[in-house]
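To close the chapter, one final illustration. This time we ask the reader to focus less on the individual chains and more on the assembly as a whole: which components sit near each other, and how the overall shape emerges from the parts.
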Amino acid sequence: MPLATIDSAAKRGISAVQDYAQLSGRAVGNLFRKPFYGSDIFLQADLIGVGSLPIVVLTGFFLGGALAMQSASTLTQFGATAFTGQLVSFSMIKEIGPVVTALMVSGRNASGMASELGSMIVTEQIDAMRALGTDPLKKLVMPRIVATVVMLFFLTIVSDAVGILGGGLVSVFMLGQDGSQYFHNAYQSLMYPDILQGLIKPLFFGFILASIGCFYGMRTRGGTQGVGRSTTQAVVVSSVLIIASDFVVIRLMLDLFGR
Amino acid sequence: MAAPGAFEPTPPPQAGLPLAPSTQAEPVVVFEDVSIGFGPEPLLQGISFTIRRGETRILLGPAGVGKSVLLKLVNGLLRPTAGRIFVFGQEVSAMSEDNLFEVRRSIGTVFQEGALFDSLTVRDNVGYRLIEEHVPDDEIEARVTEALRFVELAHTLDKFPSELSGGMRRRVAIARAIVSNPQLLLYDSPTAGLDPITSTTIIELVMKQRDVSHTTSLVVTHRLQDAFVLATHHFSRVKNDMEPLPPGQLDPHTSFLMLHQGRLVFDGTTEQLVRSDDPFIREYLR
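The assembled structure is written out below.
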């Protein structure tokens, strides 16, 4: 590859990171500046949070069930099937619940944000909004980020609960385990750092998926093809960043709490 | 070029009375040696002109010459790479985005394709700025209806932009631009892609706004026919229709700018334009 190509690719990459940091910074800063678009936050919370509830409940339930079946088949080899509940709750709350919920919401909403804002860019609606004296970062980006961070937090709790319930139903009705033993183990083995880790992650993931969705939407170029490209990029980049940041948060939590 | 003075809003003159000669009116838009480019080559270079209060300037030029870009420079949607731009006496080329939002509230912009918010009804599109400014609902309703009556689309209040024709969308965009009584109107090719009859309707609205409200305007177009209709006709409030000016008369407040190859090649009156010896202008007018 010629040096000039590497050079321009590196510049484009750095410029994109800078643009992303600026957009995120201004969007967060807008939280504390007037006018405050409270009704837009509620509208987005409804679209993003309530709208994502069915897929989060379904994926959480089946993941919990699948986890219970997989765990039980392995634990049977060691005569430790009684620990199925512990394994399911640990996995759901610390790892699978937050990550899978974020990925599902990202697939549904980061793409939605990118395509919606991208379409507004290519039809000059964003320019029209600016020309009418409204800051699109305040009116469109900030409410989406705030709504996603708040709603992903609650969606993750719902996913964790439904996942543990799904695991419990599988353990009792398919694997013939004792229900009270499953739920007792699931509850007793959890400690505060585990819960904390499970609740901190969605805050990071929510911010990543909403800001990336809005970022790719706001930098859309090139008509309908550009909108499609932005949508794909938003989902791919937010998914990769969610998993990468999961790794960083785990490392951080292990250093802080030792588990 | 005279330095732009501080902007002091003045009430528009009464309808029917002649405006003060445009050379005495204060400048509303001033371009000083403005250049902009999106690549190694500049798109616009060394552009300087002034639009005074009450004037309608028609910006002509072939497609792709940078007319829309120049319009976006006026309201700060784009920033020049060199030069200074003053609007209402404030240097918009050196303003932060937050301060620009304040300036833009006094400017109405009609975009090329209308740029209506497709998820909002006509009522919410036209009243968008008023809703953002928390104007009482009753007043919004009254002003939106008045603006839609001006463009003769009062019956479309609850429709969505997708339910309107191209010409109707353009008229709603004009209603949205004038609803807050802006002191400067920017029209970006308001008749582009429309049939001749609809184009005439749109030009009549531009003329009506010019002759009834005396709003300072910059009209971008590549259609000579529209430009000369604006220069040779006036809007009659009695007939509620446009009519030609008496033979030999031209609208004194309408003048022309012309771009060619990134440079301003003409800045003058209709008469000066048609008598120009510049080969490009002669070719363009032919």
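DSSP finds ten helices and twelve strands in chain B. Confidence is low (pLDDT under 50) at residues 1-22 of chain B. With these observations in hand, you are ready for the problems at the end of the chapter.
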